[in-house]
């Protein structure tokens, strides 16, 4: 047998290629509706979205006359039904709500109510918080002109404010009147919604009626589940509603997805008299809400944060 001398490097080279062209792999993430397991399917979820939207409209049309009758009757039946209405909406759109902490309670008939201060990232905040807290919302005046939504908001005893500096005193008086009637309030002191990845500084001008409340309770709200898995920064815009987004297309995109969830972190309540003024109240409440929301966004175990303490006032 003839032995042919070959260079050592030649031993590492294949004698014959089985393929004339080398294999080329195409990246499946991100992009593409067949390879991207996280992206939105072109046809996927449409039946689910139609079913959810129809259920929401049907439930709202049934609830409006019921709440209209309860609104004319004495007692707090309208408050309990409003909470039931919002909690049912969350279930109909497939949003599971987890609550950490205990809501501050009302003093009772004729007592002073509670002022809840929460971060704000979407219209979904109204459904989530409305299904947990026995309180009515303070909303921007534009909502009073939205079809159908304005009816639901008015039956929910919503306080409409323009959020302009000229009307600050008048709006504070309107909020005091609601609290004098025994209504707890939910305020979004950021003054606007955002992309859900941060908490904006709280505006002290929206807390002019805080002195009429018995207690103030900071609330951190984060949408932390999507598809049954922990939500990340990329998923926040699916829940957040800000800028020039319209509520119809935003609801359609959200209704097509499953396994969504939100977590409410109720921090320790405190008396507004425990702080020197409303600017300090806005800063301290904003700090507590921002710290709690940051922990929830990181999908870490969260616990309610302690109330701010000023030794000079305690003494």
End-to-end Cα distance: 105 Å
Summed up, the domain count is 1
SS summary, helix count: 9
Kindly state the number of beta strands: 8
Shape summary: globular
Q: Could you state the order of secondary-structure elements as H and E?
A: HHEEHEHEHEEEHHEHH
Helix content: 25-40%
> Structural class of the helix and strand makeup?
alpha/beta
Rounded average pLDDT:
84
Largest sheet: 8 strands, mixed
- Measured on Cα atoms, how large is the radius of gyration? 26 Å
Name the poorly predicted regions: 29-37
Strand content: 5-15%
Short description, anyone?
It contains 9 helices and 8 strands. By secondary structure, it is α/β, with parallel strands linked by helices.
Secondary structure topology:
Blueprint: H1 46-71, H2 77-92, E1 95-100, E2 114-118, H3 124-130, E3 136-140, H4 149-155, E4 159-161, H5 168-180, E5 185-187, E6 215-226, E7 229-230, H6 236-239, H7 247-255, E8 260-266, H8 278-297, H9 311-314
Parallel strand pairs: 1-8, 2-5, 2-6, 3-4, 3-5
Antiparallel strand pairs: 6-7, 6-8
Descriptors for this entry?
eight-stranded mixed sheet; alpha/beta
Q: Please, could you describe this protein's structure?
A:
With 315 residues, this protein is an alpha/beta fold. The chain has one domain. It has nine helices and eight strands. The protein has helices at 46-71, 77-92, 124-130, 149-155, 168-180, 236-239, 247-255, 278-297, 311-314, and strands at residues 95-100, 114-118, 136-140, 159-161, 185-187, 215-226, 229-230, 260-266. α2 (77-92) packs across α3. The longest helix has 26 residues, at 46-71. The model is unreliable at 29-37 (pLDDT under 50).
């Amino acid at each position: 047998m003839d032995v042919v001398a070959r260079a050592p490097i030649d031993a590492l080279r294949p004698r014959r290629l089985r393929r004339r062209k080398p294999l080329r792999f195409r990246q499946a993430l991100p992009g593409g509706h067949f390879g991207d397991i996280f992206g939105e399917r072109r046809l996927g979820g449409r039946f689910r979205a139609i079913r959810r939207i129809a259920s929401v409209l049907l439930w709202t049309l049934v609830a409006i006359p019921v709440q209209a009758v309860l609104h004319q009757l004495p007692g707090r039946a309208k408050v309990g039904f409003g909470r039931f209405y919002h909690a049912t909406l969350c279930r109909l759109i497939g949003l599971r709500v987890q609550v950490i902490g205990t809501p501050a309670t009302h003093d009772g008939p004729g007592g002073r109510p509670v002022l809840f201060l929460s971060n704000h990232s979407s219209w979904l905040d109204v459904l989530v918080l409305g299904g947990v807290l026995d309180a009515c919302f303070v909303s921007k005046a534009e909502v009073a002109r939205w079809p159908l939504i304005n009816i639901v908001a008015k039956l929910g005893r919503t306080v409409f404010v323009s959020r302009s500096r000229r009307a600050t005193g008048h709006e504070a008086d309107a909020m005091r009147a609601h609290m004098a009637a025994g209504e707890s309030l939910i305020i979004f002191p950021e003054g606007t919604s955002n992309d859900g990845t941060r908490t904006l500084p709280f505006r002290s001008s929206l807390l002019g009626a805080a002195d009429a409340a018995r207690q103030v309770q900071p609330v951190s709200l984060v949408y932390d589940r999507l598809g049954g898995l922990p939500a990340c920064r990329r998923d926040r815009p699916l829940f957040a509603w800000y800028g020039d987004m319209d509520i119809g297309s935003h609801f359609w995109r959200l209704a097509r997805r499953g396994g969504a969830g939100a977590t409410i972190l109720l921090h320790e309540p405190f008396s507004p008299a425990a702080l020197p003024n409303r600017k300090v109240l806005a800063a301290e409440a904003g700090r507590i809400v921002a710290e709690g929301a940051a922990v929830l966004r990181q999908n870490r175990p969260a616990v309610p944060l302690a109330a701010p303490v000023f030794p000079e006032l305690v003494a």
